[in-house]
Amino acid sequence: MPMLSDYIKRILTARVYDVAIETPLEPARALSARLGNNVLLKREDLQPVFSFKLRGAYNRMANLSAVERERGVIAASAGNHAQGMALSASRLGIDALIVMPMTTPEIKVQSVASLGARITLHGNTYNDAADYAKLLAEEEGRTFVHPYDDPEVIAGQGTVAVEILRQHSGHIDAVFVPVGGGGLIAGVAAYIKYLYPEIKVIGVEPEDAACMYEALKADERVVLDQVGIFADGVAVRQVGEEPFRIARRYVDEVLLVSTDEICAAIKDIFEDTRSIAEPAGALAVAGLKKYIEREGCTERTFIAIDSGANINFDRLRHVAERAELGERREALLAVTIPERPGSFRQFCETLGQRAITEFNYRYADNNDAHVFVGVQMARGRKEKDELVALLASRDYPLLDMSDNEMAKLHIRYMVGGRSTVSDERLLRFEFPERPGALLRFLDHIGQHWNISLFHYRNHGAAYGRVLCGIQVPQSENEAFAGFLEQLAYPWWEESGNPVYPLFLR
User: Fold this and answer.
1) CB within 10 Å: which end of the chain, N or C, has fewer?
2) Class of domain 4-53+151-310
């Protein structure tokens, strides 16, 4: 395990600028004025792959032996590390194989492929992809390049701190760093604390992906049962061994922020830079704001690392919805289906493998149910006309709402209402997002229990989110518990949520 002085040497000699750039340290003037402190943004979103990950990936690969270069490299990633690996391999002339989960958004798969790397899709999660990548590494003799748990990767990320201290010669009170597996904060903390131990190094994590926070709290690495995926760039269940060793000595604290706070930080960054950070990229600003509010401090100098801008357009929901409808790439339909077990699944089978963007459903009476459905139309109006004709041929009464302004602005979020349905349990689920995933989810539920409420919305992320009402008689609770265990999807019971009786029952 390298000592701190050894890391300083590694960081100062890291070979990152063959491919990475020295990113600017920019004042966030509007945010500074509002917070009463001097706030600066380290713009790692301006790297050639729009993320700091390029630094560590290139430095690791630049230090491979001739034999290792000849055998090639392999990595597992669903995003930023994969792009950094692909560009680095292209510049160094090394064969790179990237294993990506099958849930990876197509835009990221295409980005990696365009940089020349070969891609294998495997599993539904990063852990599935990582396990398979390590297996292939052994079988093919490739070098596995870890995204954060590697001294050379950490050293590459540490060059961010070198630039910060060179670019700002004045006093710095604290540097805020987004934390996933811990590679970036390990490198930044090692360099800053060696030269200026009085500067605070503060990590920031989402509340629902707090692997470093929990590890420091327990004084040992822990494995989170599950992690939230809104900030997918830091959705890590266990912090790296080497980053944790460094962080427990040199990181001052780790702050946790909510999804709403991350969203507000994305807006803050946009207003000062006119750039759109990915959720993980905005973590540091969210933490900085929370720190200032907690401490009540003024006239101090804080630096936040804007770590990346690889955000899917679909996640900018208010923009994406109108763009899709304006280009006739989404059809909004009101469809009436029979109210009986299995009819909902039968309707989904009729839609087939089309990408469903929205599903709103609520039990109405014993005869009929009304479904508000959004369907992605890759071929525009022609495909919509074909779908309408298909549904009509199956005797589904329907109304095309694609041009109905009130439906687009309001009704889509108000479908349903109060119900007195008996034995209803309300649950939230997450399932891997890919074509046909919703149908497979319904296959798991089967036809034993009646679905009395259903809401699904595609967020352009790797996981779909469903709110589901299921009629479960008390005598069947044990059997239902067994079903949930067999389903093996993350789920949350919401029957006791106070919003439930206010709006749905």
Assistant:
1) N
2) alpha beta
Backbone conformation region of residue 12, classed left if phi is above 0, alpha if psi is from -120 to 50, else beta: alpha
Q: What CATH number does the domain located at 55-144 have?
A: 3.40.50.1100
- For residue 114, which amino acid is it? S
In this structure, the strands spanning 38-43 and 25-27 are antiparallel
Global pTM reads: 0.71
Q: How far is CA 492 from CA 237, 280, 443, 482, 489, in A?
A: 18, 24, 19, 15, 10
Name the DSSP letter for residue 36. Answer: T
Q: What residues have CB less than 8 Å from 178, skipping those under 6 apart?
A: 184, 185, 203, 204, 205, 233, 234, 280, 281, 283, 284, 305, 307
Task: Give catalytic residue positions.
Answer: 53, 307
Give alpha helix (H) positions in 231-332.
Answer: 241-250, 259-273, 283-295, 317-326
pLDDT digits (tens, 9 = 90+) for 75-115: 998 788 999 999 999 999 999 999 988 767 677 788 899 99
CATH architecture of the domain covering 318-503? 3-Layer(aba) Sandwich (3.40)
